[in-house]
Amino acid sequence: MNIKEFSSLVGLSSHTLRYYEKIGLLKNIQRNSSGHRVYASKDVTWIGFVKRLKETAMPLDEILVYTKLRELGAESLLQRQILLEQHQKNLRYHIKQQQNHMAALEEKINLYKNGKVG
Length: 118
What we know:
The chain has 118 residues and is mainly α.
């Protein structure tokens, strides 16, 4: 599929996709005889994972580290696991913080609903 189709499918702009390719987050993108990018289903899967990492607040620098480790193949499995486990720990902490913030907001809203705040 071309960049326009791929962009639409994965929900990222063509500018972002070109940037990801430039920094090494997207690699080995095939080109057709006219030189236009041609994306495959493996690229859809990969970008889906990258988006998930970004949406869970993993910094782009860490995603790039993961990407480089991924390129090393099986020899980097433990390192990738450790990186993802650290991210999981950070995400759990962030979720707990957000739950605490939500509870505080709900408490304040209930005060307003019960007419106890002027």
